[in-house]
Amino acid sequence: MTMPVADYDKPRALLDQLFQTACPKRVVLLSGGDGVGKTMLLSLCQSRAAGFATTVAIELRNNCVGASEILYRIGSTIGWNLLPRFARRVAMMDGAPNVRINRNWLIGMNNRINVVLSAETRTERDQRLVALTDDLFADLARCDGLFLLLFDMFEQAPSEVRDWLSGPFLARAISGKAEHIRVAIAGRDVPTPENIEWGACSMLHVLEGVREPDPWLSVIDALGYKVPSFASDQPRGFVEGICWRTRGNPYLMMQTIREFPRRDAPA
Question: Which helix (H) or strand (E) holds 247?
Fold first, then answer.
């Protein structure tokens, strides 16, 4: 255990419900500052999904992941053979509506998507992206099994990507024909859940750190550390002071704990 996941019961429960067959809240939004555990929670969700859900996890870091890359990762993970409408739409936009879509043609899908979404105007790019999004989720609606789409660092995505994910993407993801699709988005900022199209199917949780000392005492023990000898008579009060200083920020707390002496170290 490297993070105080036991004390994050509420956000973990929100993510756990994504795996339920009957899931009225199919979009989970996790917001909070740096180091509060957003990525850790998404990683736990991804680990739980292993074996019974097809998962696509995308980190939107440094403004460098565009819509074409997101579509390509989703398609390459799920399998282009399961996305015939999407592939045909790409071919039509690429000026080859009658092309035979086979394995050789699909090898260049990443470049093809990028080309068709490189229209000169924002309006045309948006129109093409919406059309591809329609076909993507129409194909997914006909697939069996659970699909889990995870996005981290939402605030670092390009503005066009944020607008797309917050609008057409989530609107299609929660449509009645796509009930087996689940989405979790984390970041300092996340899409506003007041959206009229998909907000009623979403849940927002703001992470503020773990400010109580008891969960951290359990972490210290589980990791094989101990409080310094000068605080051994009042370990709870000592850790409580660190919680106050760091506001329970998991990243800062773990940095401090790793500087504690090991329990098995010689006296």
Answer: none
Element spanning 59, H or E: strand 53-59
Q: What are phi and psi of 203, to 5 degrees?
A: -135, 135
In this structure, what token pair is assigned to residue 194? 């007041």
Taking 80 as the threshold, does the pLDDT of residue 177 lie above it?
no
- Rounded to an integer, what distance in angstroms lies between the CA atom of residue 172 and that of residue 165? 10
* pLDDT in the model for residue 267: 59
Q: Which domains does the chain have, with CATH numbers?
A: 5-206 (3.40.50.300), 213-257 (no CATH)
Say if CB 56 and CB 42 are below 8 A apart: no
pLDDT of residue 1: 42
The Cα–Cα gap between 114 and 112 comes to: 5
The CA distance from 116 to 172, in Å, is 21
CA distance to 8, 44, 211, 247, per residue, from 252 (Å): 16, 20, 12, 9
Query: Beta-strand (E) ranges in 117-224?
Result: 146-152, 181-187, 202-206
| 77 C-beta neighbours (distance < 10 Å), count | 14
